[in-house]
Design brief:
The protein has 13 helices and 34 strands. The strands form seven sheets. Strands 1, 2, 4, 5, 6, 9, 11, 13 and 14 form a nine-stranded mixed sheet that branches. An eight-stranded mixed sheet has the order 23-24-22-21-28-32-31-30, with helices on one face. Strands 10-15-12-16 form a four-stranded mixed sheet, with no helix packed on it. It has 737 residues and is α+β, with helices and mostly antiparallel strands.
Length: 737
């Protein structure tokens, strides 16, 4: 026993010593990086004054400098060869470094609050088969005071935080002590990446910030033995490309005085900001898929989109044409009687008992049940191919199509095959475009948000593509309408002394559903799908042993507790504060039935601060029974770019208030509650009526008429937003009889 204890002690001491050595090595590395960065000769970082035209800006980026370098490396490894004998094999490696340095002038308290804390990544390593990716992160910060003193910040004083429901996102947060209005903060972030048999993540340079930029400079050095593909988007300028003495590609770009700013609200950075998006490949990588367009070394500026689309076809042609068996394998491997259920649906379609569309809708939801519940470990790309294969296996007349991922560049500007997304449609039926249910839960008849109106292309066999190039076959998917994206709210309020008892029902359709996703539990989702999938007499359940079934039931129990907090958070978002008492909450419809697409939930709770006594009378904060409205900042009112709402949408609210016995509504306060504004951008209306002596009813409509609002119509939208925000604060007087 003593020997075991001594052995354990030595082992523990060894681990502690190794950790100490590792930390010492990191500190030395970080100190070297900081010294190198702050010794750079960058004139833009020596500027002390800001132009007079920016004196009233909250913050000003005096300088931004980005430096990226990437080198091809080659390693060796051992893998099993003939007769399982060890064989030496080559490993494709890339070593890269990315520096982002910023000099930010703090001009008011809002900027002081915004830039008083930064976060950066945690060192990590990911292992893959015959591959890995290692990242080391360094942050540096120093203050330049108004008297030109330089104060270095101890960046080792960070706090590691876990974000997300399960703590899956880990970051380091660093507070900046001593920062004051009038100071400059010189901050940088550096990431060193070493990878083997892995292609790097894309690199995007956004040439626009939330504040003016006096100088933006980018410098890249890329090994000529690598493949670099980059796309210039949204009006960004191109690099000046040269070669150094070693043959490396040198990319330089410098822009002075970028006065345009990213708005705080309704702005889509990927769709609207000038940017340069770059992908790197080591074509010698045999473990990670290398697109056909990247299988030769060199620099490609704005490669034809048809090349990239061809990469996607090159990878997936077999699946789209011949992979019919794969869909049935998913059904067989993950669902009890899954293959039989899918076969029965196909037979019902063949016999005419259900329509082709009804069968396709059912199989879509059947696969969604596996995908959304993460039961079959499918990603969005896998889902699309499996669904296509599943329909092919049962002789559905289908066509496959391709668009770009929502919030990525349009298909005619696509720069990487992973920025594309497949969909399936039925031949001759333009009412359905079956996309993977990416980032949400939707009905088969819903067009997923971000896909409506997007450029797309239908898949054709390779021989057909040779005859007619892909560039001649773009089309636009249907645009969604206001009527398909609604949030309907019913509020029933009963005044009980100083407390209001509230029963609220929320009905979400189309893009409005995404506001409801946070309150859904795993149990809601699984049972909602099972209920829909039972419609043709089938009982659908996932294959699981007793242990996994018990774990699932335990997750359900935990989920019900978490959902209670989610409901409370939803109430806070609606009213601007938490309820004084939460009574009940439940999801009554998941919104996956194409005949009834609404996601519906109901809440019961009490609020204790919406009623005030005024002598014998009562003042009701009626506007607080309408969902909490956005309060615009002065800086939000000036805008030089379109407002990106995503989809047109409508919010319809009916508020019913029971008047307490012995009270009556003051007529003068009632007459001032109605509102109406209609214009090209949207609408707001509030119509208040006393439907009976003891019941007050308010009908409110708020509309965003366009998915993308032209900047010329922004003043009209402001009038709608202002009226809605103002109504949020109305009150009504209930007089004692």
């Amino acid at each position: 026993m003593r020997k075991q204890f001594v052995l354990f002690t030595f082992l523990l001491l060894g681990i502690v010593a190794m950790h100490a050595d590792s930390m010492a090595e990191y500190r030395a590395f970080a100190d070297t990086v900081r010294a190198d960065v702050y010794s750079m000769d960058l004139p833009a970082f020596k500027v002390r004054d800001i132009p007079e035209k920016y004196r009233n800006e909250s913050a000003v980026y005096k300088a931004i400098y980005e430096n990226f370098d990437a080198k091809k490396k080659t390693g060796v490894g051992v893998r099993p060869g003939p007769m399982m004998l060890p064989t030496i094999s080559r490993r494709a490696r890339i070593e890269a470094g990315h520096l982002t340095r910023m000099l930010i002038h703090i001009n008011d308290k809002a900027a002081l609050e915004k830039y008083s804390e930064f976060d950066f990544g945690i060192d990590n390593k990911k292992n893959y088969f015959e591959g890995y990716e290692k990242n080391r992160h360094v942050m540096g910060a120093r203050l330049i005071k108004t008297d030109n003193r330089i104060v270095d910040i101890d960046t080792s004083d960070f706090v590691e935080v876990e974000e997300g429901k399960t703590g899956e996102n880990k970051r380091r947060k660093l507070a900046i002590p001593g920062l004051e209005v009038g100071d400059d903060i010189d901050v940088f972030f550096y990431t060193e990446t070493r990878m083997q048999n892995v292609h790097p993540d894309p690199l995007t340079f956004y040439l626009k910030e939330s504040a003016p930029i006096l100088n933006y400079r980018i410098h890249c050095v890329i090994d000529d033995n690598l493949t670099a593909q980059y796309r210039i988007l949204n009006g960004a300028p191109d690099f000046d490309v040269t070669r150094d003495d070693d043959g490396n590609y040198v990319l330089d770009l410098e822009i002075a005085d970028i006065s345009a700013k990213e708005p705080r609200l309704w702005y889509n950075q990927s769709q609207q900001s000038p940017q340069i998006k770059m992908y790197l490949f080591n074509r010698r990588n045999s473990s990670d898929f290398t697109p056909k367009s990247a299988r030769f070394d060199g620099m490609q500026c704005n490669p034809p989109a048809e090349w990239i689309i061809g990469d996607r076809w090159d990878q997936d042609d077999w699946w789209l044409e011949n992979g019919a068996v794969a869909g049935n394998l998913v059904m067989k491997n993950y669902l009890k009687d899954g293959h039989k259920i899918a076969k029965d649906i196909g037979k019902m379609v063949k016999d005419g008992r259900i329509s082709v569309r009804e069968g396709a809708d059912y199989l879509y939801n059947l696969l969604c049940y596996l995908y959304i519940g993460n039961l079959a470990r499918l990603n969005a790309h896998d889902f699309a191919l499996q669904y296509n294969s599943l329909l092919k296996a049962h002789k559905f007349p289908i066509e496959a199509g391709l668009s770009s991922v929502p919030d990525q560049e349009p298909l005619y500007d696509v720069i990487n095959l992973n920025n594309t997304i497949f969909f399936t449609s039925l031949q001759g039926d333009s009412s359905r475009y079956y996309f993977p249910p990416k980032n949400g839960i939707y009905s088969p008849s819903d067009m997923i948000p971000g896909a409506n109106g997007r450029v797309a292309m239908m898949w054709r066999k390779p021989k057909e593509r040779k005859k007619v190039p892909d560039g001649d076959n773009y089309f636009r998917l249907p645009a969604t309408t206001l009527a398909k994206n609604r949030n309907i709210t019913y509020v029933d309020a009963v005044i009980d002394g100083s407390v209001i008892d509230i029963n609220r029902k929320e009905i979400h359709t189309g893009a409005a559903k995404r506001h409801a996703f946070p309150i859904l539990s795993e149990e809601d989702v699984n049972e909602g799908y099972r209920k829909y999938l039972s419609r043709y007499g089938h009982t659908v359940s996932v294959k699981e042993n007793k242990k996994r079934a018990a774990e699932r039931m335990e997750r359900y129990a935990d989920g019900r507790k978490e959902q209670k907090e989610d409901f409370k958070n939803e109430i806070r978002e609606y009213h601007g504060e938490y309820p004084s008492e939460f009574v009940d909450g439940k999801v009554t419809s998941l919104g996956i039935n194409p005949d009834s697409t609404a996601l519906v939930y109901e809440l019961s709770y009490k609020m204790d601060n919406l009623v005030k006594r005024a002598g014998n009378n009562v003042i009701l904060s009626l506007g607080k029974l309408f969902c909490d409205q956005l309060e615009l900042l002065p800086s939000d009112r000036e805008r030089d770019v379109d407002a990106y709402f995503g989809t047109p949408r409508e919010y319809v609210t009916r508020i019913s208030v029971d008047i307490p016995s012995g009270y009556t509504v003051n007529e003068s306060s009632l007459s001032g509650l109605n509102r109406l504004i209609l214009n090209e951008s949207g609408a707001f209306s509030a119509n208040t009526t006393l439907v009976s002596p003891d019941k007050l009813q308010v009908d409110i409509i708020k509309r965003y008429n366009k998915g993308v609002l032209p900047v010329s119509e922004w003043p009209e939208m402001l009038s709608v937003l202002d009226m809605a925000s103002e109504w949020n604060n109305v009150s009504i007087l209930l007089e004692k009889k």
